[in-house]
């Protein structure tokens, strides 16, 4: 059997954590042959609740769960980590300005980046789930100078999965018959769920839906799905977010299916005219633990406008965290 790998999860006592940990321990993320050691980070007041989650994890008697470590110290939780899912974050409260929100999250993601730099494996794979995810990933990355910046990514996979399911519902197709949707940009309402290259049962998606539905209904429905779930459930999406985080790491580690791509927010290398360094959602293929941007896709004027608008928002967020001295 394989030696266990170390998976750090922050905000582990939260609601996403409650869905995420059990699926990682069951082998849904890294495969049914890969033992894992969970290293769970929480703030001190949440350690008691976390100890209850750990009791339940142990009570599942997962064959792949080699050990569980809990701590309120990032230097402990990130020690020798192979993977990190950064879920814990400071949510936006009523009346909070963007600068306040970014500043509060800087207080979380700067020290976590420093800890990753100091104690994690040099080839650690990091996905940031906690919002504002893209810019939180940028903060952690910029505070980990000894780690390849490409190892810091953010989650747009939930948006991607929502985009797949909305299109499947509209066309009556099965989810598995939908391919090559892209979420460009920020995990926010400016994101661009792009169907230009998407296919349904091998045929162009945009031939099968009305343009008006695509622009006027589909794009806003995908972009505002998070708010719709809060409205209906009285709490934010958790199980679907956890599932998307698992998909993100699984595809990165084990590869995307032949001939298909997925969406990951990764540091821009300037592809598609996206300003370099922004953590931006791109179409990516993964193989052998590495991702690459799908190149050569045609970009319409409509797409260009949407891609630039979401890049603009990320640039403003970057300017703000620069002003705060976080990056
Ligand atoms: P919860 O509030 O249930 O849990 C967050 C947990 O993080 C809490 O237990 C808290 O104690 C912990 N925490 C706070 N600061 C910490 C720190 N410095 N170190 C370690 N742990 C810390 O939120 P939950 O519903 O689990 O959501 C977590 C984050 O995911 C939020 O920021 C949320 O906005 C974000 N989301 C991101 C999504 C995405 O697609 N990227 C979708 C779902 C979700 O809204």
Small-molecule binders: ligand NAX
Q: How do the strands line up in the largest sheet?
A: 3-2-1-4-5-6
- Number of alpha- plus pi-helical segments: 10
Strand % is 15-25%
Helix/strand order: EHEHEHEHEHEHEEEEEHHHEEEH
Q: Fraction of residues in helices?
A: 40-55%
Question: Whole-number average pLDDT?
Answer: 97
Low-confidence stretches: none
Give the end-to-end Cα distance, rounded to a whole number of Å: 41 Å
The profile of the biggest β sheet is: 6 strands, parallel
Name the shape in a single word. globular
Q: Assign the structural class, choosing from mainly alpha, mainly beta, alpha/beta, alpha+beta, or little secondary structure.
A: alpha/beta
Rg calculated over all Cα atoms: 19 Å
Number of DSSP-assigned strands: 14
Sequence-ordered SSE layout with sheet pairings:
Elements (H helix, E strand, L loop, with lengths): L4 E6 L4 H11 L10 E6 L5 H13 L5 E7 L2 H4 L5 E4 L11 H22 L5 E4 L4 H10 L9 E3 L2 H15 L6 E2 L2 E3 L7 E3 L4 E2 L2 E2 L6 H13 L1 H9 L5 H16 L7 E6 L11 E9 L2 E4 L7 H23 L4
The site of ligand NAX has 28 residues, from helix 1.
Description:
This protein has 327 residues and is of the alpha/beta class. 42% of the residues lie in helices and 19% in strands. It is built from 10 helices and 14 strands. A 6-stranded parallel beta sheet has the order 3-2-1-4-5-6. Strands 7-10-11 form a 3-stranded antiparallel beta sheet. It has a 3-stranded antiparallel beta sheet with strand order 12-13-14. Helix 5 (133-142) links the parallel strand 5 (125-128) and strand 6. Helix 4 (98-119) crosses helix 5 and helix 5 (133-142) packs across helix 10. The longest helix has 23 residues, at 301-323. The chain binds ligand NAX. Ligand NAX is lined by residues 10-11, 13-17, 41-43, 46, 87-89, 91, 108, 129-131, 133, 155, 158, 187, 226, 236-238, 241.
